[in-house]
Specification:
Elements lengths: L3 H16 L6 H5 L7 H6 L8 E13 L5 E8 L16 E6 L13 E16 L2 E15 L12 E3 L4 E3 L4
Parallel strand pairs: 3-5
Antiparallel strand pairs: 1-2, 1-4, 2-3, 4-5, 6-7
Amino acid sequence: MKSRHQLFLPILLLLLIAGCGHVISKDIRVNSDLSLTLKQVRQNPDAYKGKSVIWGGDIIETINQQDGTTQIEVFQRPLGWEEEPKDTVASEGRFLVIAKEYLDPYIYQSGRKITVAGEIHGEETRLLGQMSYRYPVLLSKQIYLWRVYPYYPYPYPYYSPWWGYPYWYPY
């Protein structure tokens, strides 16, 4: 007869593995070129037309179009192992996402993290400040909007009963 620990450990391991998955479906990931970067595509978008990629970053702006589609401007960031955009200053630029359905700008608001699987459709040139900027355009196949975790700072100063004096958190 097995002990409780011998039964508990495999179940716990299975639950941990099941909770660590990708946010983009396996079918789409298999058909996507994960090595194709935004930097490569920005150099010659027409050469990569029709290729599927998975990119992510921070939403800059969400605009609903007259035809019922939604256009999202994204500030690209590198993706982590779960395909979540990393909190880093590294970026290869900006890109546009065309979603075939209405996405509410209140939910898809500026600053939210997003991961997009889509097909490269070409490029669109727009003004960014006073310069012309070439945006690669993706037709979305799947979009994942990352959850916002609320930030609760410690009271300032935080009193620690273990240390017996206030501990000042740097801001």
